[in-house]
Specification:
GO molecular function: DNA-binding transcription factor activity; sequence-specific DNA binding
Keywords: DNA-binding, Transcription, Transcription regulation
Organism: Saliterribacillus persicus
Order of helices and strands: EHEEEEEEEEHEHHHHHHHHHH
CATH architecture of the largest domain: Sandwich
CATH superfamily of the largest domain: Regulatory protein AraC
Low-confidence stretches: 1-12, 175-181
Structural class: alpha+beta
Shape: globular
Distance between the termini: 30 Å
Strand order of the largest sheet: 2-9-4-7-10
Largest sheet: 5 strands, antiparallel
CATH topology of the largest domain: Jelly Rolls
Helix content: 40-55%
Protein name: AraC family transcriptional regulator
InterPro entries: AraC-bd (IPR003313), Homeodomain-like_sf (IPR009057), HTH-like (IPR037923), HTH_AraC (IPR018060), RmlC-like_jellyroll (IPR014710)
CATH class of the largest domain: Mainly Beta
Number of strands: 10
Length: 286
């Protein structure tokens, strides 16, 4: 079983930037989550990216917003490698003082979380504007003048404002226009989300997708970077993490609510995927 990578604020943070980076598929991270937000811009190349149950094509001018604690995994095209710039930033860095009632700099992240549409395709004009923002961040970080990190964070605020001004209708349209050849897999992710309490088997899901179990297993692993059992255990673990943070329920009750077979199974799976026990996780998040 593939253990997920859990990046945290101590590894990169509070702010990190990759400018026009390119990775071979074999060097891409497996499916992972982290405590910070991520903005990805595609300069050129093609590939796919899996974000929280949805599979997207990656093309020039695409922006992907990955909120914290959101499962994701990129698969570049071996014959047309993606070149992208990525901003990693802690939510704590973003100014949240209310000046206007209907706006905050994290508005776009909140919309993305609510509507579960993580991709925005920019027009040619907006690509030029966005690329200038990224170039300005790179110049500040390379120049290392007084306050250069503060300057990079200020530009990140500008980017968040710029993206917030793009209508939510565009996000909806982007989602509807996604590659329909992968629509059956998106339907499967939705089915799994609503069926975690039951016995979800490979044969059942393959039958629902109208493909063979072997084909289903291959496409599922290519899409998510993991097997079906690992994926389901991760989904149940994410649900448990939310309950541990937001309720005072006993761990045994959380194991039941998170659809694990037993409390011991819950403990073993949680420790393996998160790296700590449920009790210690709750203590550190209080």
């Amino acid at each position: 079983m593939m253990k997920p990578i859990k990046k945290n604020a101590n590894s990169l943070f509070p702010f990190s930037f990759v400018y026009k980076g390119s990775k071979d598929p074999k060097n891409e991270l497996p499916t992972h989550i982290h405590d910070f937000h991520e903005i990805i811009y595609v300069h050129k190349g093609t590939g796919t990216i899996f974000i929280n149950n949805i599979l997207y094509d990656m093309n020039k001018g695409d922006v992907f917003i990955v909120p914290n604690d959101t499962i994701h995994h990129a698969v570049p095209n071996q014959n047309d490698l993606v070149t992208s710039s990525v901003i990693f930033f802690s939510p704590a860095l973003i100014q949240t003082i209310a000046v206007e009632d209907n706006f905050s700099y994290l508005l776009i992240v909140e919309k993305i979380k609510k509507h579960k549409h993580y991709k925005i395709s920019l027009s040619v004009k907006n690509q030029s504007i966005f690329e200038q923002f990224l170039h300005n961040i790179e110049e500040e970080l390379n120049g290392k003048k007084l306050g250069f990190i503060h300057a990079a964070i200020l530009i990140t605020h500008q980017i968040l404002l710029f993206l917030s001004r793009l209508s939510i209708e565009q996000i909806d349209k982007t989602f509807r226009d996604e590659n329909l050849n992968r629509f059956w897999m998106n339907e499967i992710f939705s089915y799994i989300d609503h069926s975690l309490r039951g016995n979800i088997s490979l044969n059942l899901l393959a039958k629902k997708a109208h493909v063979s179990p072997a084909h289903f297993s291959r496409v599922f692993k290519e899409t998510t970077g993991m097997g079906l059992t690992v994926y389901i255990n991760k989904k149940r673990t994410y649900k448990a993490k939310e309950l541990l943070r937001e309720t005072d329920y006993p761990v045994s009750h959380i194991a039941e609510l998170s659809d694990f077979d037993s409390t011991p199974h819950f403990y073993r799976t949680f420790k393996k995927l998160v790296g700590t026990t449920p009790a210690d996780y709750r203590k550190n998040k209080k």
